[in-house]
Amino acid sequence: MGRPPCCDKVGVKKGPWTPEEDIILVSYIQEHGPGNWRAVPTNTGLLRCSKSCRLRWTNYLRPGIKRGNFTDHEEKMIIHLQALLGNRWAAIASYLPQRTDNDIKNYWNTHLKKKLKKLQTGLDGQNRDGFSSFQPSITKGQWERRLQTDIHTAKKALCDALSLDDTKPSNSCLSELKASNGYYSLTRSSQPSQSSTTYASSTENISRLLEGWMANAPKPAQTNSETTQFSFNNVTGTDSSSEECTPTATNNNEMVSQGAFDSLFALDSSTPDVSPSLSLDESTQFQSETNFFQDESKPSFETPVPFSMLEKWLFDESLIAQGHEALNIQQISLDDNVNLF
DNA sequence: AATGGTAGCAACCGCGCACTA
DNA sequence: TTAGTGCGCGGTTGCTACCAT
């Protein structure tokens, strides 16, 4: 059977999204919810294909997305998870609730690959930080087979471990908004760029504003130098809470504040001992108690479960040195990847 | 100041899977 | 069982900003 194109390509706009398009898309999703992407261009009048709309929403407009500034812990998690899962960015992203697969993929390709390569060449076989060479105890085929059966359940178990309540306000929100001040100019020429394009910064603002919508009933738009620059008065329900980053904005289940999220990754040696390798049985046990991926393949954050299990599993580098099998698996994959550089 | 190279990132493309009729 | 459809994923491209010369 032939596969029809996702759109007829005729009259379909490509390239960067404009703020106006973002607003239209956000407004539509706010009203109808994500999904049925095929209908989005038709119903909104956007000259974009459905895939483009979905991608734009998933990667940039969806609430709760953190962009840029990967922390050391996130970096480590990505490295470990990439070693374990390979280039399964969506799976890796599911462990980093605020990050998109695209973001992680880009970060891997642009930063971490180089970093690891540098590390690999610099150390030249010395064992350090879990990234060095070693003698694999099992073949890649073996661990891949094992992963095939284990990854899915382990993924769900880990997501369960990530589940927590979000009660802290985001401290970084306001400063980011300030940093973005003026970036939403439609002329895209009013402010100097910092580290990203003016457009990227502006979509971040859209996301943050949307967080406010999702969290609260629509309120009259508040006059503000930042929001008015965005022409958000075209959209009903602009919420001032997104500017203030008050805890009221945390009702959204998808959103995890910076503070809360960072706390997840604080290494805590006092946490209970767990096996560094999630066995199938353990994972299945978790799986039976949880309900994941409610929306857009991201875990929910309803049931507070200590993060220590995942944390320990991912970060206990001493276990790497001890040569546990599960971490050997990571090492194998990591070495395989490094060899590709 | 101008130019060329490079890095970073947003977005696109094609494929595969799941679901339905 | 097969065809049609929608969606998600991973790889890749191309644009833009930055940096070195």
TrEMBL record:
<dbReference type="Pfam" id="PF00249">
    <property type="entry name" value="Myb_DNA-binding"/>
</dbReference>
<dbReference type="GO" id="GO:0009733">
    <property type="term" value="P:response to auxin"/>
</dbReference>
<feature type="domain" description="Myb-like">
    <location>
        <begin position="9"/>
        <end position="61"/>
    </location>
</feature>
<feature type="domain" description="HTH myb-type">
    <location>
        <begin position="9"/>
        <end position="65"/>
    </location>
</feature>
<dbReference type="InterPro" id="IPR017930">
    <property type="entry name" value="Myb_dom"/>
</dbReference>
<keyword id="KW-0238">DNA-binding</keyword>
<dbReference type="GO" id="GO:0005634">
    <property type="term" value="C:nucleus"/>
</dbReference>
<protein>
    <submittedName>
        <fullName>Uncharacterized protein</fullName>
    </submittedName>
</protein>
<keyword id="KW-0677">Repeat</keyword>
<feature type="region of interest" description="Disordered">
    <location>
        <begin position="218"/>
        <end position="253"/>
    </location>
</feature>
<dbReference type="InterPro" id="IPR009057">
    <property type="entry name" value="Homeodomain-like_sf"/>
</dbReference>
<keyword id="KW-0539">Nucleus</keyword>
<dbReference type="InterPro" id="IPR015495">
    <property type="entry name" value="Myb_TF_plants"/>
</dbReference>
<dbReference type="GO" id="GO:0003677">
    <property type="term" value="F:DNA binding"/>
</dbReference>
<feature type="domain" description="HTH myb-type">
    <location>
        <begin position="66"/>
        <end position="116"/>
    </location>
</feature>
<feature type="compositionally biased region" description="Polar residues">
    <location>
        <begin position="221"/>
        <end position="253"/>
    </location>
</feature>
<dbReference type="InterPro" id="IPR001005">
    <property type="entry name" value="SANT/Myb"/>
</dbReference>
<feature type="domain" description="Myb-like">
    <location>
        <begin position="62"/>
        <end position="112"/>
    </location>
</feature>
